[in-house]
Amino acid sequence: MKESRAAFRGRLWQLFFGMLSISAVTFGGGFVIVTLMKRKFVDEKHWITEQEMLDMTALAQSSPGAIAVNAAILVGWKVAGLAGMLVAVLGTILPPMAILAAISLGYQAFAGNRYVSLALRGMQSGVAAVILDVSLSLGQHVMKDGQKTHLFIMAAAFIATFFLRVNVIWIILCAAAAGIALTLRRKGDWTA
Amino acid sequence: MTLLQLFLSFVQIGLFSVGGGYAAIPLIQEQTVALHGWLTADEFMNLAIIAEMTPGPIAVNGATFVGLKVAGLPGALAATLGCILPSLVIVSLLSLLYRRCREMPLLQGVLGALRPAVVALIASAGLNMLLQLAWGGRMPASPGDIRFAATGLFVAAFCALRKLKWSPVLVMALCGAAGLCLGLLGLA
């Protein structure tokens, strides 16, 4: 069943505007956007099955980069190949780019304004609290899992970055290497 | 030269931020503040505020903000392309491979070890912000340097998030209003 050109083009537009509208209103990061994508592309348009969406979510989460962009890449390929991937990514990044560009222009003009800078100073306390709250919740998850090696990695990474100021990329690479070593060793134990 | 530097910096941010959203924060901080000096510590915090208050991935927000500031529109495009390029390549490859190897114990193992490291990195980035706003740097020169208004506001915001489970956007908006009031009363 070969699709007509017009139908294909129509699907690309729907994909583009679908991602554009989702991305423009999604506060709160990757997981929220994945939920909205499921509603749009699985429940509404039936382009993807529920199981595929679950697999894509897992993959988007475990790959490097922003979850929203990763999910857009996967859905785009699935729905309309290379062209689909490109329009889905474009739809995802255009709204934040446009909004940030508008704010940046305002920022240059208003950052010197007394009231704006007072409000920003107050919000700095808020954003530090948000980030520490998130990391505390994530840290509690690691603790609850109770894997000693993971606790060790968390402590070592903290000392390396906070006190020793080791480059973040080295810490990521070392943790990845530790993960490979642990997995291979576990496999060795299992076969032995 | 600046464009290339921006592009390469954001390629690294895109490539090494695993685990979504907040994982990019320590990398953006290191690349834009510590390594290249494109943003001051203060401007970086303002970027984090803007990213938190607007839709879209933090890395894309950061790329547009920093790129525009350093090299205008071409800078924003170079930085944004840089930050999504690793995803475009890696995720596209994975989507092809995925059907063949659904079970990926090695990938799971790597992610299992990365997660605690990423948590530590985010916590460190948050602590650096707290130190910056509480006394303007790493170490207080004397107890008199502590900024009580900013520190108190942090404690209040933290409690609202932890205990009362208020949404981050609400907490930050209230912090902005509180900062304005304290400032106008001459308390901050």
What composes the largest sheet of chain A? none
Q: How much of the residues of chain B is beta strand, in percent?
A: under 5%
Rounded average pLDDT of chain B: 89
Count of DSSP strands of chain A:
0
Order of helices and strands of chain A: HHHHHHH
Terminus-to-terminus distance of chain B:
41 Å
**Sheet having the most strands of chain B:** none
So what's the overall shape of chain B? Answer: globular
Task: Point out poorly predicted stretches of chain A.
Answer: none
Derived structural class of chain A: mainly alpha
Percent of residues in β-strands of chain A = under 5%
Overall geometry of chain A: flat
Q: Which radius of gyration of chain A do the C-alpha atoms yield?
A: 22 Å
Arithmetic mean pLDDT of chain A: 88
Secondary structure: number of strands of chain B: 0
Count of helix runs of chain A:
7
Distance between the termini of chain A: 52 Å
Describe this structure in words.
The complex is a heterodimer of chains A (192) and B (188). With 192 residues, chain A is mainly α. Helices cover 86% and strands 0% of the residues of chain A. Chain A has helices spanning 5-25, 30-44, 50-62, 67-110, 114-145, 148-163, 168-191. The longest helix of chain A is centred in the middle third of the chain and has 44 residues, at 67-110. Chain A starts with a helix and ends with a helix. Chain B is an all-alpha fold and 188 residues long. Chain B is globular. Chain B has helices spanning 2-16, 24-35, 41-53, 58-97, 105-135, 148-162, 168-184. Chain B has one domain (2-146). Classes of the chains: A mainly alpha (192), B mainly alpha (188). Chains A and B meet through helix 1, helix 3, helix 4, helix 5 and helix 6 of A and helix 1, helix 2, helix 3, helix 4 and helix 5 of B.
